Amino acid sequence: MTSTYRYIAEDSAGRPTVVLADDHVRVLARVRQILSPSYEVIAMVEDGWKAVQVVAKFHPDVAVLDILMPRLDGLEAAREIREMRCQTSIVFLTVQEDEDYITAALAAGAKGYVVKSRLQFDLVKAIEDALLGRIFVSSRHPPSTR
Length: 146
What we know:
Elements: E1 6-7, E2 17-21, H1 25-35, E3 40-45, H2 48-58, E4 62-65, H3 74-83, E5 89-94, H4 99-107, E6 112-115, H5 119-131, E7 136-137
Parallel strand pairs: 2-3, 2-4, 4-5, 5-6, 6-7
Antiparallel strand pairs: 1-3
């Protein structure tokens, strides 16, 4: 992606709107694929600084942020989004499973914390909970294959 952000949709058709921020294009594409049946992904960006800009411009219902990104990490981006006093809920999607990251994410105002290994199982639930004002943190247990 070469522009400051990639704007995707003009009209959310009544579905909750989501902005995605991750420095890996494949992750962005996979997350968009998972969310598109229920959510309108309105923008995808590669760093925290761009995420803050897009949230300020479009006021999405949810921002899904990676923690480790260039220019501005996800934790700092979340703090800046909270300072804007917008109603955007923040859900982290990251490889970081350490308790310190979870604590820092929740302190930064996140409503959700999903580890990428549980993306398929936890992200939609985390977003649903965030939209209801509830906290969701991925389980440390491997997903069931039943």
